[in-house]
């Protein structure tokens, strides 16, 4: 029998509070809806939810593994140039606990380490030049993914009142040229 007061259920609900995009991923409208479901769930139904959450987190970790060069570069740059003692592990952990949001103009205008906030709608040629300069993916191909919403989320690190792009410059530039406010992950240190 599954008890809503068990430590496993409490930890699961805390995890959902920390990663609210999991609620949508599990196809619920709110944390209360998940709680109501779990209160009435069998142990097997609850176990299925936990497995799906583990898959979600594993996918996120694999994505982060693909961006390891970017994490290492960001840690080196911020330590050297900003005097911040930031390790790769700290950066990864900040993104593991991050929330997916739609990038708003206030944050985008302050974003460091990107040309994306200087790209205007319709300036795809500029983005193609930037992609060539850094030997990155074709903005024409990225356009399709961004329009569909099926793209790796750019990674932004927040420290103090500053926002530093860790990965996803071409994705952000492409979104700007399309006039789309992209979904991003913001990790906080």
Describe this structure in words.
By secondary structure, the protein is α+β, with helices and mostly antiparallel strands. The protein is built from 10 helices and 4 strands; from the N terminus they run ααααααβαααββαβ. The chain has a 4-stranded mixed beta sheet. A hairpin with a 2-residue loop joins strand 2 and strand 3. The mean pLDDT is 91.
What are the low-pLDDT stretches, counting only 5+ consecutive residues below 50? Answer: none
Number of strands: 4
Spatial extent as radius of gyration: 19 Å
- Any idea what the shape is? globular
**Percentage of β-strand residues:** 5-15%
Overall structural class, as computed from helix and strand content, comes to alpha+beta
If helices are DSSP runs of H or I spanning 4 or more residues, what is the number of helices?
Answer: 10
The string of secondary-structure elements, in order, is: HHHHHHEHHHEEHE
How much helicity do the residues have?
A: 55-70%
Main sheet makeup:
4 strands, mixed
Termini gap: 40 Å
Give the mean pLDDT. 91
Strand order of the largest sheet: 1-4-2-3
């Amino acid at each position: 029998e599954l008890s809503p007061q068990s430590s496993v259920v409490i930890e699961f609900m805390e995890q959902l509070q920390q990663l609210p995009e999991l609620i949508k991923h599990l196809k619920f409208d709110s944390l209360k809806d998940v709680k109501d479901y779990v209160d009435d769930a069998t142990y097997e139904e609850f176990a299925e939810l936990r497995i799906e959450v583990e898959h979600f987190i594993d996918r996120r970790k694999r994505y982060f593994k693909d961006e390891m060069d970017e994490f290492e570069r960001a840690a080196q740059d911020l330590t050297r140039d900003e005097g911040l003692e930031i390790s790769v592990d700290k950066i990864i952990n900040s993104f593991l606990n991050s929330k997916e949001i739609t990038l708003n103009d206030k944050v985008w205008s302050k974003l460091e380490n990107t040309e994306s906030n200087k790209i205007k709608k319709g300036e795809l040629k500029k983005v193609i030049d930037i992609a060539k300069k850094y030997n990155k993916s074709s903005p024409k191909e990225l356009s399709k993914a961004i329009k569909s919403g099926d793209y790796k989320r750019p990674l932004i690190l927040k420290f103090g009142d500053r926002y530093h792009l860790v990965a996803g410059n071409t994705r952000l530039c492409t979104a700007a040229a399309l006039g789309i406010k992209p979904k991003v992950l913001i990790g906080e240190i």
